[in-house]
Amino acid sequence: MNLDCPAPRHEDDRVLLGHGAGGRLSAELLGSVVLPALGAPDGPLEDAALLPGHPELVVSTDSFVVSPLFFPGGDIGSLAVHGTVNDLAMRGGMPVSLTLSLVLEEGLPLSDLRTVLESVGKAASGADVPVVTGDTKVVERGAVDRMFLTTTGIGRRLPFMRPTAAGARPGDAILLSGPIGLHGTAVLSTREGLGFETDIASDSRPLHRLVRALAPLAGHVHALRDPTRGGLAAALNEIARDSRVGTEIDEARLPVPAPVAAACDLLGLDPLQVANEGCFVAYVAACAADPALAALRALPEGREATRIGAVVPDHPGRVVLRTLVGARRVIDMPLGEQLPRIC
Q1: Does a cis peptide bond (omega within 30 degrees of 0) precede residue 109?
Q2: Has residue 253 got a pLDDT over 90?
Q3: Model pTM?
Q4: Which 8-state DSSP code applies to residue 69?
Q5: Which range has the worst mean pLDDT, 17-21, 218-222, 329-333?
Q6: Which residue, among 201, 308, 309, has the nearest Cα to 260 in the 3D structure?
Q7: Which of left, alpha, beta for 14 (phi over 0: left; psi -120 to 50: alpha)?
Q8: Dist CA 187 CA 155 (whole Å)
Q9: Distances from the Cα of 338 to the Cα of 5, 20, 134, angstroms
Q10: Is the pLDDT of residue 5 over 60?
């Protein structure tokens, strides 16, 4: 018996919810099933890819299955736009165009569809990106949960902005553009009727303007990642792994809103593993940390930006948290799904 195995293994293995959580099970599924079948090249798994023959362009695609469709601070429509715009931005790309695909369940109220589509239009207009094409399918009642959306985005990279998950370097400062844990706890509270939705709203918003604010420091911006599925813990571990560097963060500097901390304490959740949709982590040269923070804080969506840690030469591939009492503990890649269906 292999006691170190993170999940039961059987000859008739099935897809688990955790395979879509952005943690270790997701990495296993990609590495053992998806990437070998597609003949994907080796290298870091980025939020968006460079278009072959057009390195100034980036492309990203994402599907959204959030439940419920509507939650404090957003809905599946705005979430789909923001999520794809943000994935482009994490490679330094400003959005040029979006596609939108709808899979609808028979019996879905047309009023819900209209509301979601109006939200898509408003979010796309707010991000200055047109929806240029799409597709609609309707399936039998029960075949999907009301509505699934898929968006694809094309972006144009800012000059000299070349962030990559493999780009972090020893000595880099680690910045966070805003508070963590809001999106996942808002969605869960609404879904389960926990009552926190009166105090917590999703942080869903576009991040490309914050990235554009860092453009004057482009040569010093080494890595960007928005901590969606798997939360900040997954994002930090992915960059530590792909860059082969050690990471240390300070618990006292982590911006966890009090209502989020209370919800996580009650539910037994780790705010480091809760999904976000409106912040990103940036690895920048230490000499550029203060100008980068000033640039982020100059915009409303970055006013709470803070420095949370640094890249260190020790323990490559590991993320270490300095706790409030001065101890150190390893922050592992999440195994599976704390909160299913949050994006």
Answers
A1: no
A2: yes
A3: 0.91
A4: S
A5: 17-21
A6: 201
A7: beta
A8: 28
A9: 19, 11, 32
A10: no
Cβ contacts of 266 within 8 Å, gap of 6 or more: none
User: Which token pair is 269?
Assistant: 């959740």
For residue 22, the model assigns a pLDDT of: 64
**Element spanning 76, H or E:** helix 76-89
The mean pLDDT of 314-326, rounded to a whole number, is: 94
C-alpha radius of gyration, the chain, whole number? 19
Return the HEC string of 121-189: HHHHHHCCCCEEEEEEEEECCCCCCCEEEEEEEEEEECCCCCCCCCCCCCCCEEEECCCCCHHHHHHHH
Q: How far apart are CA 136 and CA 113, in angstroms?
A: 12
Contacts of 294 (CB under 8 A, 6+ apart): none
Q: Distance between CA atoms of 343 and 340, rounded to whole angstroms?
A: 8
Bridge partners of 152, per DSSP, are: 61, 99
Of 144, 67, 151, nearest to 103 by C-alpha is 144
User: What percent of the chain is modeled with pLDDT above 90?
Assistant: 78
Q: What's at 43, amino acid-wise?
A: G
Beta carbons of 255 and 304 less than 8 angstroms apart: yes
